[in-house]
Amino acid sequence: MIRPTLLTAGLAILLAPGLFSQSFSTQDFRGTYAFSFKGSLIRTTTGVPLPVTALGVFTLDGQGKVTKAVRILNAGGQVIRQTSTGTFTVNPDGTGTATFIVLPAEGEPPVFPPTREVFHFVFSNARNGRGMGASIVAANGQDIGFVPVIRAEFVRQDIP
Q1: Residue-level pLDDT, tens digit, the chain, 160 residues
Q2: What is the Cα–Cα distance from 115 to 137, expressed in whole angstroms?
């Protein structure tokens, strides 16, 4: 008799709305995060995927700005170094959106034109999160013919 009661009580605690929830804001996200992503850029004209992977770091200021980001991108076998800045928003439930203006790093060939890339993400806490690519267009807003199918993971680097 005790076991079903404990099981019911345990489930009630786990399912109680808001009991263990955390509320997030942009102020929770300040510092440097390491990230990786992998997936494809699908050519809209042919449907042919261009495989992409990347590793890098980005710094958030806790006020909605990505102050610096650097990534090493492998696009279809061509490896390039890129830099970016941007903005981000965070909802109380940890979901949000980040928009980056991506440029070739100094001295790198312009494999792609400068781009505006949008990612949707969810943080499980102020240290760890996952995201996915939402859109990629030229920095001036023109279509460059790709749809991102990318999954990203990131972790804050400057706290234990």
Answers
A1: 444 444 444 444 444 444 445 899 999 999 999 999 999 999 999 999 999 999 999 999 999 999 999 999 999 999 999 999 999 999 999 999 999 999 999 888 777 789 999 999 999 888 999 999 999 999 999 999 999 999 999 999 976 5
A2: 6
Residue environment code for 9-22, b if the CB has 16+ CB neighbours within 10 A, otherwise e: eeeeeeeeeeeeee
Question: pTM higher than 0.90, yes or no?
Answer: no
Q: Where are the beta strands (DSSP E) in 44-142?
A: 49-61, 65-75, 78-90, 95-104, 115-123, 128-138
**Every domain of the chain and the residues it spans:** 22-156
Distances (CA, A) of 58 to 22, 33, 44, 92: 23, 5, 29, 22
Tokens of 44: 């809209």
CATH number for region 22-156: 2.40.160
Per-residue tokens: 3 = 């076991």
Closest CA to 32 of 160, 159, 125: 159
